[in-house]
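Cross-posting from the modeling subforum.

Setting up a comparison between two proteins and wanted a second pair of eyes on the formatting. Protein 1 (sequence, then structure tokens):
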Amino acid sequence: MPGNPPILAVAFSPMRMLGALSVRANGRRPTIVAIREDERGIVAVLTALALTIVIGVVGLAVDVAMWYRNNRAMQNAADAAVIAAALNRTGSYASEAKAVAARYGFVDGANGITVTASNDQTCPDGTTGCYRVMVAQASPPRYFSPVLGNFSPSLAGAAMAGGSQTHSYCLLAIGTTAPYGIQANGAPDAALTGCSLMSNTGARCNGHDLGATYGDAHKTNDGCGIIHNENVPLIADPYSSLASNIPPVGADCPAGYPQEPIKKKDPVPAGLTQWSDTPTLPVIKPPLLPAYKSVCGDLVLMGDTTLTTVSPGSVLVIRNGRLDTNGYTLRTAPGSALTIVFTGPDLTGTYTHAPTGGGTLDFQAPTSGTWKGMAIYQDPALTKGVDISDAGNSPTWKITGIVYLPHSSVTLSGAVNKSSNGASCFLLIVDNITINGTGKILANGGCDAAGVTLPTNNVGAVALVK
């Protein structure tokens, strides 16, 4: 403005001021370029440190995700392996558990992996009998996390399974060829209360569950049993080995095996094939039976017959023939016991190896000795002439003990009750069986007193329990 002195413009530079105020280093003052280079170096160092942390965190996250995935896979493998072990329930349960874990990619002894299986573990409810499997890996793979240090977790998955039950059977179908070992077609009056049944193939009950406590089948079970189970392990023939105790043909059958069975209308040879308590010839009242008694051809009752036997019980061997009760009763005296064995050559259409006729079978099996618990025994070498079409009805069965018919197709039509002088225990073993409307196996409960051990199986819904 006029009259005022001139004003000098002075340019202010912060960098100049910074340079002016800078302290000399190494005998010279830093330049602006040097200062800027120093700033860049600090950023680079900080960036490098930050990137290291970021890479470590990201790498750790990747490894943790991988460890989590592997741990879940281990748990799945342990779950599957322990179920397999619990279903196996044999001495090979641990091998089976390891084989199942290997199918999930966890091979025992490889890559630091261990698969451990144990039985007889205490279940969460305090009972024993559970199985436990652990799949572990001591040093899982590490891909990125090593930048943060030398550490590695231990991974493991553990599972426990139980819930299977031991079932005892009074009806066992051991055949493996018939599609249904046990079947019933509309059997409204059938009653197997207190009895459990098992089929080595399938089971089918239309319209009625038979009232059996448990119905078990190796294959499918369509309605048999109040509680029915499928995929139950097979049961082996428990009594085939007894055949080695059948006495050979001896002096009591001097002609060997007859070519044709002796019928009741035929003459009585030596009084061996017709029995009655009425001592009228040619019918013979049987004396005290020895340990073994053989009859060649049919044995026919001509009157009610009571047998007195030696201790622990007599074995009546019927070769190439049937036991025809002929409307009468065959019973054992109090304190006596009997095993009836059917045997002979396996010839097509020639002989019937079974009890037939009306009347009643009323006897108990021995409670000790070689034939302990066995009431009727069909030689397992027999496959022909062994079927029974009206069991329990013709004749009526009042039997304490085991009826063993391993190759027989049986139709159970009547009620099976205990013998007059024996305990309440009955076990029927067949190839396959059809149960009609009145088929009954009356209450067991005295098998210990009868010398009978019922066959058992470990079944039930195996499940994870922990």
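Protein 2 (same layout):
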Amino acid sequence: MILGILFLLVAIFYASVGFGGGSSYLALLVLWDVPYIIIPAIALICNITVVSGNSFHYVRAGYLNWRLLLPPTIASIPFAYIGGRLEIEKELFIIMLFITLALAGIRLLFNYKLYDDNKDSYTPISILLGSSIGAVLGFLAGVVGIGGGIFLAPILYNLRAGSPKQIATTASIFILVNSLSGLAGQLQKNGIADAIMDYWYLPLLVLIGGQIGNLLTIKFIPSRIIALLTAVLVLFVAVRLGIHILVG
């Protein structure tokens, strides 16, 4: 029950800034000693559930920017699938996850002011740069079991590649596509599909949390405030995971 509540809270925070929460789902599953082989698949399914709602709401609101979206997203698909098919040792996976969470949390903590709903000036990035970023993040997403949007969004903000809502839309769809591709790779591993059924309630809870998060950011709370709260949450989970690594 506690794990489910935490997944619900993570979904609320992450959905409010256009993310799925995959990195924190992974850390929570590790801390709860869920069988390692199914952890990435569960996190990806929850990611897909949350960002599907994000993508729908943002696109319906008119924030889709095809030029910003297509290069990184198309380039990421094959690399996410390849990364998802790779099998890595549990110890290496946990270390990679810790580094991923720490970097993501630090980026958000120092860049949360970039999530300003009132900024509207931007410069489109080249197709080559967008594709290169997408390929690298897609591979990382597939290996670790995240969507990669938590890295893509800060990069796009720093490059001033689009408006805040356009970047959030791009990050959501990027996460969705990468999560689907990565999950396809993960499901090629033996025994995954049956084992994840024991955790059926987690996608249901993040579906609810994702809808709440979207409502908060659209109607009530500024994106930069929720981005700051998300950074704190990510760093907290990273610290817990770091302690888990140290104590074995």
